[in-house]
Fold:
Amino acid sequence: MRIDIITVLPELLESPFNFSIVKRARDKGLVEINVINLRDFTTDKYKTVDDYAFGGGAGMVMMIEPVFKAIEKLKSEREYDEIIYTSPDGEKFTQKMANMLSLKHNIIILAGHYKGVDQRIREHLITREISVGDYVLSGGEIPAAAITDAIVRLIPGAISDEQSALSDSFQDDLLAPPVYTRPADFRGWKVPEILLSGHAAEIDKWRHEQSLERTRKLRPDLSNE
Structure:
């Protein structure tokens, strides 16, 4: 898989991809992640990539030409399954979407910035707009990193125990059950006896019941009941 991220601030994306699961996936050759500086695609001596909005109003807008050039160059080198734009008014990012995107081969993520990108880019080049939540951040770099992380950890081989990813929260529209580790009794705080019983079927049943209960209590919007 290849993920190309176009950004105004490439420095913000240096750390997230150089540690933990994403780094291991890159080292194994499971994913190639390229951070592309949008300022490399402007001929302006000041490397300007934003301008005032037609019609007035507060804030600046990402200019059409450098964004078009960056995407055009990438598309001339390979075909892309998705060209994603991170935006507060995009489709809300979910685990199901992460699962779907993890099956793709080549993805572009355009990190939104300022008051957004020229609408013509959204109309003619973007295939999917994604929001990571109903709030506004200073830029799309953090959402781009979150989307990338969620996708990469699902690639076979990225996590040594692949069943771990399949049991994460939201995989079945349920929150994960509570987890415990040693010691079984810490200052009188005890691990549920069922987890110490060794009865796999009963443990699975307990975990499912806990997931249902936690989902109903903490995220009723996910529950179908």
The first strand starts at residue 2 and ends at 7. The helical segments are 20-27, 64-77, 95-101, 119-124, 141-152, 162-166, 200-218. The two ends are 37 Å apart (CA to CA). Residues 167-222 form a domain with the Trp Operon Repressor; Chain A fold (CATH 1.10.1270.20).
